[in-house]
Design goal:
With about 425 residues, the protein is of the alpha+beta class. The protein contains 14 helices and 12 strands. Strand 7, helix 6 and strand 8 form a beta-alpha-beta unit. The protein starts with 8 loop residues before the first strand and ends with a helix. The protein binds magnesium ion (MG). The site of magnesium ion (MG) has 6 residues, from strand 1.
Length: about 425
């Protein structure tokens, strides 16, 4: 096989992304200690992002709001506005796409770019992007420039904010190998602890181990980590139009007050299912199963799931399935604190399915037409304009549920 040419990969990471967006939207917040936090009135408020100044005051992501305020009494807490952050994210992508079609997002604020085929040098492109983001959006990015995705990501972490770090085949042993293993992508806490126990502390030490030893200790993940450590990551940057079908569509809430009985819980289930049905129809996906996760007042979580008779996008079918799971499995010995409903085993449109005898396909058809009509109304007048009567009184639901969904930015290291 012909030896492939050295790739030019950039990883661009928007600094303090949510907080920086808020500072562009509200210039009076500039140079202040700012934290974007989950709602303080609700019980689960935590810091989602902080400004440079708040960071210097010791505020960390994931810290409860009360603790953050204790640490930094003049901290300005603002609620998150994801619709704006996702607009900023799109504008960032537009800047990246001036240089390549290979732009792969990692959360809202990070992207890999493969600029191998661009005639400009990767360092020139990185510099132009850094400047353009600053001039056009008022945000700053830190960029890692390297010959693979893993080192590019490492590079973007090395100097920030508003900085560029280059890691080359010639300097990676000097720059990367002294770093702790935990800096490597996909080297999680457990693996790090396990490595420590084997007296492997740095990426260089990991790289120097025999591959079969690492594989024996860590399996498939060990195989990847060893290759990453040696600069041998060959994973590709996805095309900007690449679409990965989601594996599930879920919505969960921590309720403002605990739920004590099936009626109270049902209101929450119906409400959560509304969003799921809407999202399934928007993404042209069908659920073949439903899962329900119940967190009780002692924070103990239990999950249940069932298979549906026929694939569906209908919120009523989904909420009924969730209610059935709750009735069959939960005794209310402890009140419920949080509920999550998830549509699982998703199928794309047109996936052939086995017809089911005695299933009322006419009723499905009618529900589907009704749902589409309701979607049109929601698209025009907003999602709150129309809802089932059973959830007109949503006293135990948090006021703005959008804030409660899992944030992509919190899921990776
Ligand atoms: Mg970032």
């Amino acid at each position: 096989m012909e030896k492939s040419k050295i790739r030019a990969i950039l990883h661009s990471d928007a600094n303090c992304f949510y907080a920086s967006c808020e500072m562009v939207l509200q210039p009076e917040l500039r140079d202040k200690a700012v934290a974007v936090c989950g709602n303080t009135e609700e019980r689960h408020g935590i810091v989602l992002a902080k400004s440079e100044k708040a960071k210097k005051a010791g505020i960390t992501t994931g810290m409860p709001n009360w603790e953050a305020l204790k640490k930094c009494p003049d901290l300005i807490i603002v609620p998150p506005r994801f619709e704006y952050y996702s607009r900023f994210s799109k504008l960032l992508h537009q800047i990246y796409e001036r240089y390549t079609d290979y732009v792969e997002p990692f959360g809202l604020d990070e992207c890999w770019l493969d600029v191998t085929d661009n005639i400009k040098s990767p360092m020139t492109i990185a510099e132009e992007i850094r400047q353009a983001v600053k001039d056009e959006l008022g945000l700053t990015v830190s960029i890692g420039v390297s010959f693979n995705k893993v080192f590019a990501k490492l590079g973007s972490d090395m100097k920030k904010p508003d900085a560029i770090t280059e890691i080359t085949p010639d300097n990676f042993k000097l720059k990367v190998w002294p770093l702790p293993c935990s800096e490597l992508l996909y080297c999680g806490r457990q693996t790090t602890v396990h490595l420590e126990r084997l007296a492997v502390h740095t990426i260089g030490q990991l790289a120097a181990l025999p591959l079969d030893y690492v594989e024996k200790k860590f399996g498939k993940n060990g195989h990847s980590l060893w290759h990453f450590a040696n600069g041998l990551d060959e994973s590709r940057v996805a095309h900007k139009d690449h679409y990965e079908m989601p594996k599930s569509v879920g919505h969960g809430v921590t309720c403002v007050e605990n739920l004590n009985n099936i009626d109270e819980a049902n209101k929450v289930l119906v409400s959560l299912s509304q969003d799921i049905g809407y999202k399934l129809r928007k993404t042209h996906l069908f659920a073949c199963g439903v899962s329900l996760t119940v967190k009780d007042k002692n924070l103990v979580c239990q999950s249940y799931q069932l298979k549906l008779g026929a694939p569906t996008q209908d919120e009523l079918t989904i909420s009924r399935a969730a209610l059935k799971l709750l009735k069959e499995n939960y005794s209310f010995k402890d009140p419920i604190r949080a509920l999550t409903v998830t549509a699982i085993n998703l199928n794309g449109e047109g996936t052939p399915t086995q017809a089911i005898l005695l299933h009322d396909y006419d009723a499905d058809e009618k529900r589907s037409k009704l749902n589409c009509a309701i979607d049109d109304i929601k698209n025009t007048f907003g999602k709150e304009i129309i809802k089932p009567a059973v959830i007109l009184d949503e006293s135990k639901m948090p006021k703005n549920r959008q804030k409660d969904t899992v944030l992509p930015g919190l899921m990776h290291k």
